[in-house]
Amino acid sequence: MKKFAFTLVAGFGLFAGGSVALADEQTHVVEPGDTLSSLAASYETTIDDIMALNDSIEDPNLIFDGETLLIFSDSQTVERKETSNSADTSNSENQTVAESTTAASAASSQAQTSTPSAGSGVLNPVDGINYYNGVRESYYSQKVLPGGGLTIPGRHVASDGTIRDADGYIVVASDNQAKGSTGQSSLGAYKVYDTGVGHSGIDVYTNW
């Protein structure tokens, strides 16, 4: 026989942890506006318990006016929880804290793994995003999104697939660096020729 757990209300008596009791029979005639959730709240039971006692309910979101539903039954067995609500709440909070700590630790570990301390050429079409000296690098494919309208003296494709100017600077876009400024990326020295990155790092122009 399936057992159902719900909160004990006045009139049903007191029971020790783990013991069982029989609930009184209670029916309800569905009125306009009634829902299973509102009935469960009114009678201090659960939607699952009501559905288990009424085979006519196929959809928990659909009950019919005038329908008589069995809320409690004298044949229904009720199992009491041995732990108190305060203990359950404490355990739940501890579990949430533990999960948050684990997630933060995993994120920190991943960030450390993907942040090289020196130029490594990690940025590529497979990895997609690289971090160099704390700066996020993403590539801007000239095969898919050509940088039309940019004036790049001596624009050419280097052996590593990056788009470079006549002086060998990698062409990048940056939202927080002035056009014409230079810097160092994991793939080498760069010069800012464009904006519209959408993040605080740089977009490296490539032929990937």
Automatic annotation (TrEMBL):
Q: Which domain of life is it from?
A: Bacteria
Pfam families to which the protein is assigned, alphabetical: LysM (PF01476)
According to the UniProt record, where is the region Disordered? 80-123
Task: Report the SMART domains cross-referenced here.
Answer: LysM (SM00257)
Q: Where is the composition biased (Low complexity)?
A: 95-120
Keyword check for Signal: yes
**Where is each LysM domain found?**
26-71
Q: Which residues form the signal peptide?
A: 1-23
Q: Where is the composition biased (Polar residues)?
A: 84-94
This protein's UniProt keywords: Signal
- What's the protein here called? LysM domain-containing protein
What species was this sequence derived from? Candidatus Enterococcus testudinis
